[in-house]
């Protein structure tokens, strides 16, 4: 794949950009998603689903998946859900992130799936909620976020 035309990407709406990321999976663009092996499974207006597989590199000192992996998944999926509601050239940043952890996760290839859904989209602020489940459908963590639209 050739290097993406960043000027052309800047002309896309948030939904179009997230759909591009979902289909193109631009490996040459450094990102937290590439680092962690995130997959964009579903992208629609106000809702995004991202998954990844745990690995030993994700271990905390106790030998289970570090809570930061779930928090990063949640921050990403909720922020991307907000992004799908934005016009071209409009950005956002996370103002607040509240994560609740429900259970530990092994580092041995467990597929975690996160769903982010916009709750409210105003002119300057958006809120969203997210859930992470394991490959057995069990809740691992859930969260809410507030994003500033810039």
UniProtKB/TrEMBL annotation:
CDD domains the UniProt entry points to: PaaI_thioesterase (cd03443)
Cellular component GO terms held in the UniProt record: cytosol
Alphabetized InterPro entries for the sequence: HotDog_dom_sf (IPR029069), PAAI_dom (IPR003736), Thioestr_dom (IPR006683)
Entry keyword annotation includes Hydrolase: yes
One Gene Ontology term of the molecular function aspect: 1,4-dihydroxy-2-naphthoyl-CoA thioesterase activity
Keywords per UniProt: Hydrolase
Domain Thioesterase: 63-141
Family annotation (NCBIfam families): unchar_dom_1 (TIGR00369)
PANTHER family, per the entry: 1,4-DIHYDROXY-2-NAPHTHOYL-COA THIOESTERASE 1, BLR5584 PROTEIN
Protein name, per record: Uncharacterized domain 1-containing protein
Species of the source: Klenkia marina
């Amino acid at each position: 794949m050739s290097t993406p035309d960043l000027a052309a990407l800047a002309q896309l709406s948030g939904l179009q950009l997230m759909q591009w990321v979902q289909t193109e999976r631009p490996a040459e663009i450094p990102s937290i998603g590439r680092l962690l092996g995130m997959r964009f499974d579903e992208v629609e207006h106000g809702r995004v689903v991202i998954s990844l597989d745990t690995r030993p590199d994700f271990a905390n000192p106790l030998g289970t998946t570090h809570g930061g992996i779930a928090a990063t998944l949640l921050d990403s999926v909720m922020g991307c859900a907000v992004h799908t509601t934005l016009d071209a050239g409009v950005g956002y940043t996370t103002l607040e992130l509240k994560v609740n952890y429900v259970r530990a996760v092994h580092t041995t290839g467990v597929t975690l799936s996160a769903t982010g859904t916009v709750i409210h989209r105003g002119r300057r602020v958006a809120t969203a909620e997210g859930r992470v489940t394991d490959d057995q459908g069990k809740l691992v963590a859930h969260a809410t976020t507030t994003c500033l639209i810039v």
